[in-house]
Amino acid sequence: MIPIKTAEEVERMKVVCRIAAEVLAALEREVAPGVNTYDLDQFARREIERRGAISACHNYRIGSQRYPSYSCISVNEEVVHGIGSLKRVIAEGDVVALDVVVSHAGYIGDNARTIRVGEVDRDVDRLVSVTEEALWAGIAVARSGKRVGDISHAIQKYVESRRLSIVREFVGHGVGASMHEEPQIPNFGRRGTGPKLRPGMALAIEPMVNLGRPEVKVLSDGWTVVTSDGFPSAHFEHTVLVTEDEPEILTLLKK
Ligand code: MF3
Ligand code: CO
Fold it and tell me: Which end of the chain is more exposed for a tag (fewer CB within 10 A), N or C?
């Protein structure tokens, strides 16, 4: 069952998604050469908590493991779930994926973005651009009457036609009272397949794209996902509400 949010739930989703977006924007401004990812994560924690929210990542459980950080900060070959570390110091030329998932008044907002630190290699620059554009390609079909597979297919086609690789082991998801609700939203798939989208569904759409091969592995810390070949990866994510007409991007900050 895919939850359909009531009007009241949608209002709560708007509040928490706005907080998630504000924290992500604040965190983005802190990324600079010489800064370590532990300090960035602690900054994220403060920004979340001073808005009266809590991190949905901190203590998030998979099996017997608990996620130790407050945000996910994944540098270069790290794909997702990077843990803040005093030893991981940001350098010019890096790409840094920031993922902020926040809980407030019983609802969750989820968003991510990859930042370029100064000048980056041309290939890496293009990787980041294509990943962001692929997110928009997916959002464009998050409309009532379409199917989950239409989103998956739009993202896959956008990325693979540009000779980049889709990560398959991690997927987008419904989001609301829990971080991960139905449906799963793979970043690859066939048009016209999967559950039908309806107004009131809230979806976290999140392409993860590799410059090299698609394969990933998990480091011995039990969390950090890296590319198997060591080439860089990028990740963008928005929480999107399916409506009667245009998709509403709940984690987009209005100017
Ligand atoms: N955007 C990620 C997801 O949907 C965030 C997970 S953070 C974790 O899975 F640390 F809690 F795993
Ligand atoms: Co997510």
Answer: C
For residue 111, what are its two tokens? 């968003």
Q: How many Å apart are CA 115 and CA 244, to the nearest integer?
A: 33
CA distances to 16, 146, 226 from 210, rounded to whole Å, are 30, 27, 10
Tally the residues of the chain.
Answer: 255
Task: Decide whether any atom of ligand 1 lies within 6 Å of the 16 Cβ.
Answer: no
185 touches ligand 1 (CB under 6 Å): no
Please, what are the domains in the chain? 7-249 (3.90.230.10)
> 174: which 2 tokens?
């419904």
Which is the closest atom of ligand 1 to the Cα of 56? 11
Going by C-alpha positions, the residue among 94, 115, 161 that lies closest to residue 134 is 161
Maximum separation of any 2 CA atoms in the chain, in Å = 48
Q: Is the CB–ligand 1 distance for residue 67 below 6 Å?
A: yes
| H helical segments located in the chain | 7-30, 37-49, 122-140, 148-160
Query: For 102-159, how does the pLDDT look when each residue is reduced to its tens digit (9 = 90+)?
Result: 999 999 999 999 999 999 999 999 999 999 999 999 999 999 999 999 999 999 999 9
Residue 129 to residue 137: CA distance in whole angstroms: 12
Which residues keep their CB under 5 angstroms from ion ligand 2? 110, 204
Residue 225, SS3 per DSSP: strand
Query: Do 95 and 41 contact (CB within 8 A), yes or no?
Result: no
